[in-house]
């Protein structure tokens, strides 16, 4: 193993998309950001220098951060933000993870333009448990707003309404020629016939779950969230914000000048029709078929046929197909006995409209989101420091509601009272506690899915189902043999997901919906995992350059 050093200069850069030039926040002037490349076992040291007049933090999404909680990055959870003119060194080791992860800003909506891939290869002299790819290609889905995404979120917060949707989805930063005025901005993947490509798919979109396809091609899924899975074939990838999926693409054998469209578009079960239903396209080019971007022949290529926008059964079936590889090198370590069980109901809700304001949320209120009716209020100092220095008094309390404060039939008529309770509360877990967490998607206020992301751990997805979770019958169906290991799982509206993990990583760990507006509205909480007794079970003291609030 080696140590790999990176410097990330956070700086503004003019980017032109959709015929308009805009100043955006980037890493080293690149959009999407530069790749981080490591082998399993390597140490990665990234000096982040903030040159922009905004507070910044960066989260290394999916990196386990074993005993390196100070490097995790969510603002006000593990650190105070890096102010303009300051820097902070993130220092962590990649342990037991191979595949694709990603990084993104973790404060306000700055991640709209500040994101990039983390590519983790096997150790030297080790190989993939699948055919060696001819080439590896990161493919990142994102969203592009003509305005500043921070203006979008601050307007949503002020009015209490849902946010304006983005102007385009992007593939590796490009919206593609189906959107007006973007004919030159198209992602092109040039391929040779008869080769195997490893596509590293990342959903960095802020607010939408996506389907991805390439016309006339199928994929073999081999890895999700940097854990190997039992390979399975599919022609349509489903990927929620926060998730990564590695797929093999076998190119066709003929060497003719052909091209095919690749495309992504949203999956949404929301009853309200406010979702952007546009499609982003790129092109897969064989041989000498290179076309000039903007060439009208692109528009004449057929779009791959997508499932309907609300194809819930397709999604349930797809996610059910994911199983851990379970090899002797990577055994499945799902906890078989459970010490703490939790039931979290995830949903949208409302907050009262302040007097002297008019609010555009449901019935003149403000939109909110909650776990067990608690809408989580961020502290103004960082949790991890408060925890480490035993100064939690006045920062947080430890009485997070572990069952819903108000219960109802989550698939039936939602209650009239959708008001949430606001607070800053956490769950404390002794070191090495085995946890089972059932997450129930409620169908209040339009019924949206919630891709839940846990920092600091992978969890095993042991069960999923539609309707209300039944604590007597549903656990008998749990897969405790080869459940998929992930850091982000889609909890369906009016359905449930059960996960298990072992709290073997001391620190404070954020858990939240990776749909950015739901995170903003309060669908978030934190787990405090106490130190164990042995020296290698303790969180080390903070680095000297840890930013102050
Ligand atoms: Cu990718 Cu807390 O986020």
TrEMBL record:
**For the Plastocyanin-like domain, which residue ranges apply?**
10-123, 136-289, 403-532
Q: Which GO terms describe its biological process?
A: lignin catabolic process
Q: Provide the reaction this enzyme catalyses.
A: 4 hydroquinone + O2 = 4 benzosemiquinone + 2 H2O
Which class of enzymes does this protein belong to?
oxidoreductase
- Which locations, inside or outside the cell, does it occupy? Secreted, Extracellular space, Apoplast
Sorted keywords for this record are: Apoplast, Copper, Glycoprotein, Lignin degradation, Metal-binding, Oxidoreductase, Repeat, Secreted, Signal
Documented EC number(s): 1.10.3.2
- Which cofactor(s) does the record list? Cu cation
Keyword check for Hydrolase: no
Source organism superkingdom: Eukaryota
Q: What detail does the entry give on cofactor binding?
A: Binds 4 Cu cations per monomer.
This molecule's function is given as: Lignin degradation and detoxification of lignin-derived products.
* Protein family according to the UniProt entry: Belongs to the multicopper oxidase family.
Task: Provide the protein name.
Answer: Laccase
Query: Which organism is the protein's source?
Result: Lactuca saligna (Willowleaf lettuce)
